[in-house]
Amino acid sequence: MDDSTKIRNGYKQEDWARHYSEHDLTWDIAEPSPPLVRLWNDGKLKAGKVLAPGCGQGHEVVFFAERGFEVVAVDYVPAALELAGQNLKKKNLTARLLGQSFFDLDSSHDRSYDWMFEQAFFCAIDLSDRTRYVQTARRILKPGGVLVGLFYETGEEGGPPWNTTEENILESFSDGFAVECLEKSEHSTERRQGREWLAWLRKK
Ligand SMILES: C[S@@+](CC[C@H](N)C(=O)[O-])C[C@H]1O[C@@H](n2cnc3c(N)ncnc32)[C@H](O)[C@@H]1O
Predict the structure, then answer these.
(1) How far is the CA of 122 from the centre of ligand 1 (A)?
(2) Cα 167 to chain center, whole Å?
């Protein structure tokens, strides 16, 4: 997702697949998201059922599974799930890995998650898919379930990653979610310092 690969009309599945086949995972921070780790260490998260959409190679999938969460991870690129599966296997952990689009989760997922965890997925999808994202998140979360999100404010035009501002988050989620926290995270990994919005969005 560096400048040379940015395109105006967003990515299709095959564009993401190419990143994996070329081992070009510039977004990958090689560890569980530090702000997520901080939330856990501060006792803000309780084990439950969590969905990780656009999970990539699944550092957070491993993190949640290690802590007793029931994890369902979705990515529509098979190579991403293969990497996530390998990372789980190294620690003898399991999670349900679904190779499909987040937007096509069937009705068996409806109202069944305590948590959804977002990192570098909202910024990865087309701007025109943001409404579908919010609708899907609302559909799959239990009433009172929480979307914990790290939203990426790139400050740049074009994408992916598409810029995500505080206003974008408020506009997208104010309707069906209570915005219980929205702040720039102080614990982001170095290259995202000052550019990640930590959001705690509770389904109404
Ligand atoms: C920028 S990467 C982020 C990966 C991971 N969340 C992370 O932070 O390392 C975006 C991921 O979303 C996946 N993706 C994009 N659109 C998707 C969709 N509609 N459904 C499922 N996965 C999707 C891509 O294949 C890619 O692995």
Answers:
(1) 9
(2) 19
Instruction: Print the domain residue range for 12.
Output: 3-203
Q: Count the domains in the chain.
A: 1
Short-list 116, 188, 201, CA closest to 154 = 188
Report which secondary-structure segment, H or E, holds 53. Answer: strand 49-53
| Ligand 1 atom closest to 28 (CA) | 9
Residues having CB closer than 6 A to ligand 1 are 16, 27-28, 53-56, 74-77, 80, 101-103, 119-121, 124-125
Give Cβ neighbours of residue 104 (< 8 Å, ≥ 6 apart). none
Radius of gyration over alpha carbons of the chain, in Å? 16
Domain at 123, CATH number: 3.40.50.150
Which among 77, 24, 74 is positioned nearest to 52, based on CA atoms?
74
CA distance 110 to 143: 10
C-alpha 201/C-alpha 110 separation (Å) is 17
Nearest Cα residue to 89 out of 52, 119, 61: 61
Question: Mean pLDDT for each consecutive 10-residue tract of the chain (204 residues)?
Answer: 49 96 97 98 98 98 98 98 98 98 98 98 96 98 98 95 98 96 96 96 98
CA nearest neighbour of 135 among 147, 120, 124: 147
Q: Which residues sit opposite 151 in a β-bridge? A: 197
Q: Are 73 and 61 in contact (CB under 8 A)?
A: yes
Q: State how beta strands 177-184 and 196-203 pair.
A: antiparallel
